[in-house]
Amino acid sequence: MKAVAYQKASPITSPDALVDIELDNPIAEEHDLLVRVQAVSVNPVDTKIRKNVSAESGWKVLGWDAVGVVEAIGDKVSQFKVGDVVWYAGALNRQGSNSELQLVDERIVGHKPKTLEATEAAALPLTAITAWEMLFDRLQVPKTAPANTTILVIGGAGGVGSITIQLLKQLTNLTIIATASRAETKEWVKQLGADHVLDHHEPLAPQIKQLDLNAPLYVFSTTQTDQHLADIIELIAPQGYFGLIDDPEQLDIKPFKSKSVSVHWEFMFTRSMFQTVDMQKQSELLNEVSKLVDEGKIKTTVTEVINPINAQNLKQVHEQIESGTTKGKIVLHGFKQN
Hints:
By secondary structure, the chain is of the alpha/beta class. The protein has 10 helices and 16 strands.
């Protein structure tokens, strides 16, 4: 099967950062689905691992968002059958979706929304899982909160921010404050449902005060947390809830003590990595998001589609993500057949 992979961690400018290769077809066992990949999207985690983690042996295949068709199933599979069209974000400790065929555990797989094309659906799994787990598993955001309860989403125009805003708008009654910096990204988060938009290139606490709203009870930082931490400490409500998903080199949370703020770090690969007893919840939430999409309540966050899936195109997308200028998600579609 065709795949895009690498052996040694390197910057994207390296000739061997990502290369086109051929690998043996994998075999489905136990809870595994063997999926023929139709479309994938690229996330910041792809770039971080490529830069920092070399293959233990052989080749390392990246990719943690995919839509595809089930070609074979393991002997313990109970939720899917051959021919099902599925979507998922995979597991960090297994080969990724930048390959024609991929093995993925059924307990972290959902049925693709019927109303979306493969390229539209591939933009959503990883970000939807991350946003859902942060909002409802970590921060425990209620579906119905007291009137005028606010949440601040830092990095509202990125992949995770884009789906977070939609989930909040559809499933809660919170007042949504999102951040963006460019005219096009500010308009994007407004279209997604943000009630107010702040510029994250300027101090956030003064902007919050100018809104004359209740201090945010919830703050979800999707990016550059270290740059915004002092502002977050100042602006968050006493007894508030703070969550982050990025990897600041240092994170001093002691200043949160006076406000009794709880701190939550979300990593959507935890359930699959540790085979937690509630691993099945990722399948359930993906099916719930699929339902919301088919009901017209959630829309795809794809902003660009590139054909085909190959090393050259993936390198281009990695470069764009590392530039910090992406809006929504970039999707790659199909492997070129010989």
